[in-house]
Design goal:
Shape: globular
Distance between the termini: 47 Å
Number of strands: 2
Structural class: mainly alpha
Order of helices and strands: HHHHHEEH
Oligomer: single chain
Radius of gyration: 14 Å
Strand order of the largest sheet: 1-2
Length: 113
């Protein structure tokens, strides 16, 4: 499948539905086959790795594991940076995703202080 077909796939859409409902492990599981189907080093593959790590970060946040959450946020940021200058990949706004990631990082900072 092409990246555009994967972006419209049931797996990609189900992952977002799970994520939006707070089922972060399930989102990760839905997205993993999408990630494995994308070309190495493509913006799309980097994006999917980023959202998988972000879902894992949200899960670790829920588990009250701030160090793991921070580490996963850093990984998500690295993968998002690897997407390049594009603002939208697979119908996902990278700026919106970065804003959500920043909100999580601020929550972590608030807990630490």
């Amino acid at each position: 499948m092409s990246a555009s077909e994967l972006a419209a796939s049931d797996a990609w859409q189900a992952g977002w539905a799970f994520f939006d409902q707070g089922f972060f492990w399930e989102a990760h599981e839905a997205w993993e086959p999408v990630w494995m189907s994308l070309p190495p080093n493509s913006a799309e593959r980097h994006l999917v790795r980023a959202v998988i790590q972000f879902a894992n970060a949200r899960l670790k946040e829920r588990m009250q594991r701030p160090r793991a959450t921070r580490r996963l946020c850093e990984l998500a940021r690295e993968y998002l940076a690897a997407c390049g200058a594009e603002d939208e990949v697979m119908s996902v706004s990278l700026s919106d995703l970065l804003a959500q990631l920043g909100a999580l990082e601020r929550r972590l900072a608030d807990v630490a202080s």
